[in-house]
Amino acid sequence: MESILVTGGAGFIGSHLCERLLSQGWFVVCLDNFDPYYSPDVKRKNIAKSLKNKRFYLDECDIRDKERMSGLFSSRKFDAVVHLAARAGVRPSIQDPHIYQDVNIGGTINLLELCREYDVKRFIFGSSSSVYGDNSDVPFKESSPLMKPVSPYAASKQACELFCYTYHHLYDIRIACLRFFTVYGPRQRPDMAIHKFTRLISGGNRVELYGDGSSKRDYTYIDDIIDGVQAAVDKNPAFEIINLGGSQTTELRQLVSLIEKSTGKKARTIKSPDQPGDVPVTYADVSKAKKLLGYKPRVKVEDGIPLFVKWYKVQKR
Fold first, then answer.
1. 284-297, pLDDT tens digit by residue?
2. Mean pLDDT over each residue of the chain, to the nearest integer
3. Which position among 38, 100, 132, 153 bears the catalytic label?
4. pTM of the complete model
5. H or E element: which one contains 250?
6. Which structural domains are found in the chain, ordered by start?
């Protein structure tokens, strides 16, 4: 039975991935420190189903604790590592850049070092579309030069990609860096726009919109992301950087309209200036993902928002 380590496995993307891997017969080790960036109770609920599976093991550990993780690597032979654990959030990274360096960069180096020490040759890194920065050359291609990250979070993810290549080059670790584009769906973090807007609109509270409403995002439904991560694990490329997105853009005001329609309530909006670290557009070119991984996003945002709102309503009962 193959064994896989999923860091950040109790989070939004990680918990869905753990369930997918369990369904395919993997022995899954979930590593998570239940950081209070948002409620640890939410994360424990995320993995409640997986905890009932005998092929699931939870290790409550911080990726900054290399010594503790070394014990985990020495006690189990991992066939693959999917590294999703990170300090999240563009705007908070501007307030406290040091922790993003410590957790995201330092934690990633710890895991790469452990893969080197324990001869783990398959490594999947969860990167971000934020590495493209304020880029007007759309859709974003993996070959685009990355010289203008506009937040410490983006810079930390870009730095991690560079370290991934270094460890591939020096130690022949096969690595896929997957750039996720605004992932949403059941279990989405409560601070992210779709979850936050749904909560505020449903409760009749004011929604703060930054800018003039014309900013665009490439929203990607969770099932499509998990399909892409699974394919990267299975196909195990030597070293690749790959976009995983919905490959369509949605304006902020259109997003609000979709949530209004799905909740059956009118949004009470207030306008605020653009925020530092925000970019006007994200848009994924997924042709490389299609070629290498057979990736094909299936859920359009017009269909995904009602699915998310349906899940949200069930959680609030």
1. 999 999 999 999 99
2. 96
3. 153
4. 0.97
5. strand 250-251
6. 3-188+221-247+283-298 (3.40.50.720)
| Helix or strand (DSSP H, E) at 177 | strand 174-180
Of 122, 32, 28, 18, the C-alpha closest to 68 is: 32
Cα(121)–Cα(168) distance, rounded to whole angstroms?
9
Residue type, 225: I
What span, in angstroms and rounded, lies between the C-alpha atoms of 301 and 189? 17
Rounded-to-integer distance, Cα 315 and Cα 48, Å: 14
CA atoms of 193 and 43, how far apart (whole Å): 18
Nearest to 31 by CA among 88, 112, 98, 86: 86
pLDDT at 64: 98
Phi then psi for residue 78, to 5 deg, are: -85, 135
pLDDT over threshold 80, residue 317:
no
Map residue 183 onto helix, strand or coil: strand
Whether the Cβ atoms of residue 5 and residue 82 lie closer than 8 Å to each other: yes
Q: Kindly state the DSSP code that residue 129 receives in the 8-state scheme.
A: G
**Does the annotation count 153 as an active-site position?**
yes
* One-letter amino acid for residue 35 of the chain: D
Residue 150: which residues within 8 A CB-CB, separation 6 or more?
133, 134, 276, 277, 278, 279
> pLDDT of 205-237, one tens digit each?
999 998 888 899 999 999 999 999 999 999 999
